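Supplementary Text 2. Reproducibility record for the structural model of the 254-residue chain.

All settings were left at their defaults, and a single model was retained for analysis rather than an ensemble. We include the record here because the model underlies the residue-level annotations in Supplementary Table 4.
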Amino acid sequence: MTDEATGRLLGRFVDAVQPVLPLVSVWAHGSLAGGDYQPGRSDLDLIAILRRPCTAAEERQLGEVHESLGSASALASGLHCSYCAAGELDDPARLHLTWAHEEFMRRRVTPVTRRELHDFGLVLYGEAPAALLPPVTGGQLAEFVVQDLESFWLPSLDHPERWDRDIWVDLGLLTLARATVTLRDGRLITKAEALCVLTELGAPAEVVDDIRQRRYGEPGPASQRWIARRAELTLTFLRPAIEQLVAQRPPSTG
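Retained model, structure tokens:
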């Protein structure tokens, strides 16, 4: 599942949270659960289920837990966890207390995350997702994927300054590939699989190779000339690809 350092961090996290919160379960999703986790590069995506919402005092203690973990392990900066009361899991639109990017915020547990948890979520503590988390239908999953493309990714293409950054290039292209497979086959794929799908979709080969090297290899420093060219290639490919995928959305089946 993980390398030794990541395993130790996850164990320390569960041990530290248990005395602070009314903990029911802790689950992992994302790359960690899907078998594509890259230590030091991938985030640690977790969901903690509580018997009830945490109080303000517990939230302060929880912040201290995360800060102490960050002092002990560099990997903790990528540890993201949403804290959800078991009785509030029915609504995918509900916002839950979340620690991410070294601060608290409110986030949804999206239909994609919910399907990941049901299909291949890892149980780090307590009960399995199937015992607590409502299932996600194929229609719900497809509707969310299309909405995400339409309401987030298409408007993001109107901000070319963002696409000089690695994170935008990586997530934009990988999201397209994963959405393509989800809408076509109703299944979720890893980032490694998504890179192969990008090639099949005709994405610029040099950009796909760039993502692969930064995720799995030992890339050298990128020149400003390449960064600008990469952004141009990505934007030129992504807009028509997303527009075509959205236009071909499958009919809702529930």
